[in-house]
Write a structure and sequence with these properties.
elongated; 4-stranded antiparallel beta sheet; 7 helices; 26 strands; Membrane-bound Lytic Murein Transglycosylase D, Chain A; alpha+beta; Resuscitation-promoting factor rpfb fold; 11-stranded antiparallel beta sheet; 416 residues
Length: 416
């Protein structure tokens, strides 16, 4: 009868997902006696045993810093649990490769290869055999969930901009009532100020996986640009005489991860495998002369003469008109000094250049002007953009030439 009660009691605590090794916690002695008359009290004894006997189970505790964190059924399950916990943050392949390594010589690593030199916990972890109540023992799967979740810890939270009581409670897995219970003096209508401190309860990790890996990478070294001066080139002109080329640097990093997140990266060695080649740019320093050569250049980018100097539409046309260029840039016909850059009635926007040799040129109907009075310009330099300002029937350049103050035919001067 006693054995039947014990058997039923142990069956009561068996679990479907965990195979438990159960036993009666109390010491129970059955003492035979000789009596004259048998007084059967099986029902009474059975009831008393059911009430007084308790069940315990053999288990293995995962002990973190001297405190049991979770219980499983065996040392094998405990080791599986630890491996599963680690491989949340380090891949199974990397962890198994780490366990198989006999040494951690990183000098043989190729570019973009890595090697874990340490995978461990932040706290001391031990495995101990214990006896506990059956309800305290977990399967490996449930024990992993418990470890991942961590322990509830009371913490302090500083109110941020945009926070309200409901959002703070929700962000920390609390109901509004629970949050108010933790903070005396607060109610649903309380106004929060940025920087206020509040009590909250949050889960704190029991275990952290600290993984150290060494990674070898190849990175580029940017080239520098050297500038050389050349007094035979005009100021503002430049020429690339040597293209730059990036170098390469072989770097070995040590990276420390805490629960899969990078917390530190440090260079432990670096080697230049290819030196960068500097880019060399030659810049001209020769100042622009304000005196022209006397030989005028074509003042537009291509185009044709749509109207020559002479009588036109009952009046004298003082210059030539150039239309339909390749682009609308207006170029200085010769070096000189800008003496006018303004609007002039029917001529629209006008630029006038004194070439300081008795010759003066005029450019009219410009859309925009890129120079100002007193500026020295070089022959062929862009001074404005062709347009149709003033009295104009379309986009074109009106070009005039003067010598010693007298109007001349531009065709006598142009190199066209």
């Amino acid at each position: 009868m006693v054995e039947t009660v014990i058997e039923d009691k142990l069956k009561e605590y068996q679990k479907e997902d965990v195979e438990l090794t159960l036993q009666i916690k109390e010491e129970l002695d059955i003492i035979p006696e000789l009596v004259f008359h048998t007084n059967n009290q099986n029902k009474q004894v059975s009831k008393q045993l059911e009430e007084e006997l308790s069940v315990e189970a053999s288990a293995v505790a995962l002990v973190v810093e001297g405190e049991p964190a979770v219980y499983v059924t065996s040392e094998e399950d405990a080791n599986r649990l630890l491996k599963n916990y680690i491989t949340q943050f380090v891949s199974k392949e990397d962890y198994e490769a780490y366990l198989e390594q006999e040494d951690f010589d990183t000098s043989e690593l190729d570019v973009d290869e890595r090697m874990y030199t340490s995978i461990d916990f932040n706290e001391e972890v031990e495995i101990e055999e214990v006896t506990v109540e059956p309800d305290d023992i977990y399967s490996v799967k449930d024990a992993l969930t418990l470890l991942k979740q961590g322990e509830l810890e009371e913490m302090t939270y500083k109110v941020q901009e945009g926070d309200v009581l409901g959002s703070i409670a929700n962000d920390h897995g609390l109901s509004l009532e629970e949050l108010l219970h933790l903070n005396d003096g607060l109610d649903e209508d309380s106004t929060l100020q940025i920087g206020d401190e509040m009590n909250i309860i949050a889960y704190e990790s029991v275990l952290e996986v600290i993984a150290v890996q060494v990674r070898k990478t190849e990175e580029s070294i940017p080239y520098e640009t050297e500038v050389e001066e050349d007094d035979s080139m005009m100021k503002g002109e430049q020429e690339v005489t040597q293209e730059g080329q990036e170098g390469t640097l072989l770097i070995e990093y040590e990276m420390i991860e805490k629960n899969g997140s990078l917390t530190k990266r440090e260079v432990i060695s670096e080697e230049i495998t290819e030196e960068p080649v500097n880019r060399i740019v030659v810049k001209g320093t020769k100042e622009t002369s304000s005196r022209g050569s006397g030989q005028l250049g074509w003042p537009a980018v291509g185009g044709y003469i749509s109207s020559y100097q002479g009588n036109r539409w009952g009046r004298f046309h003082r210059g030539i008109d150039i239309a339909r260029p390749s682009n609308y840039n207006i170029l200085a016909a010769d070096s000189g000094t800008v003496t006018q850059a303004s609007n002039q009635g029917g001529y629209g926007n006008v630029i006038r250049i004194d070439h300081n040799n008795g010759i003066e040129t005029l450019y009219a109907h410009l859309e925009s002007m890129d120079v100002s009075v007193g500026q020295t310009v070089a022959k062929g330099e862009k001074i404005g953009v062709m347009g149709q300002t003033g009295n104009s029937t379309g986009i074109h350049l009106h070009f005039e030439v003067y010598e010693n103050g007298n109007l001349k035919d531009p065709m006598d001067y142009l190199n066209q």
